[in-house]
Amino acid sequence: MSGREDDVRPDPLWDDGSGRPPAWQDHGERLLFENPWMRLTEHRATAPTGAPADYVVMRPASLAVGVLPLHGDGTVTLVGQHRFVLMNWSWEMPEGGARPDEDPQAAAARELAEEAGLAARSWREVLRMDMSNSVTDERAVAFLAWDLDPAPTAPDPTEAFRVARVPFLDLIDAVGMGAVRDAFTVATALRAHHMAVTSQLPGWLSHVMLGRPR
After folding, report:
1. Are residues 51 and 145 in the same domain?
2. Is the pTM of the predicted complex or chain greater than 0.85?
3. pLDDT by residue (tens digit) across 50-75?
4. Given this model, what pLDDT does residue 2 score?
């Protein structure tokens, strides 16, 4: 390297892909397990380095959807539940799944009512995510919702929730402290904060989100 400043160029995230390493190659799959919620498939594959590599992928039946409900006083509603896989308590935004033939916002609205007892008149899609792309093809869509009204709750037979309403900035603090660790909730909360500080939301809403209600 010459060390000249004009030799140092950023590698844009939106490049045309011409400088990327080779792609993985998939030589066929075998079904290992299937139930109404997911499939496990095993693949004979070749890695970008040329090395052979077997790969197991978890393929959910639904698109993950989530919604962060924003109240007019700058608070948000979260739902807490005990999660089986990690055997821990988890504070989260209302989340669920949208079947392939279901509108993601309609599914998020259903989860908002079922888990938090809320309905929203204003919606904004804010984030699309690949949830854990080394082991699953699960994808997710997140929404912000405001202009909230009460709605009947209807949790699934296996769900037991505690509902809490906290200032939005307290949620951001909880993310920083590790008290809120659900990845979908963390990403959506940080996206909402970025939108508020960069004027991508209605001005009154950004104002109440970035203040701390007394």
Report:
1. no
2. yes
3. 999 999 999 999 999 999 999 999 99
4. 43
Judgement on whether residues 39 and 123 belong to the same structural domain of the protein: no
Q: What is the DSSP string of 9-34?
A: ----TT--STTSPPPPEEEEEEEEEE
On whether both 45 and 72 belong to a single domain, the answer is no
What is the rounded end-to-end Cα distance, in angstroms, of the chain?
57
Distances (CA, A) of 35 to 55, 65, 127, 140: 20, 20, 28, 20
Which of the four pLDDT bands, split at 50, 70 and 90, describes residue 3? Answer: very low
Could you list the residue range(s) of the whole structural domain that residue 39 is in? 5-60
Domain with residue 80: its CATH number is 3.90.79.10
The answer to whether residues 53 and 47 touch, using CB atoms and an 8 Å cutoff, is yes
Residues 40, 88 within the same domain: no
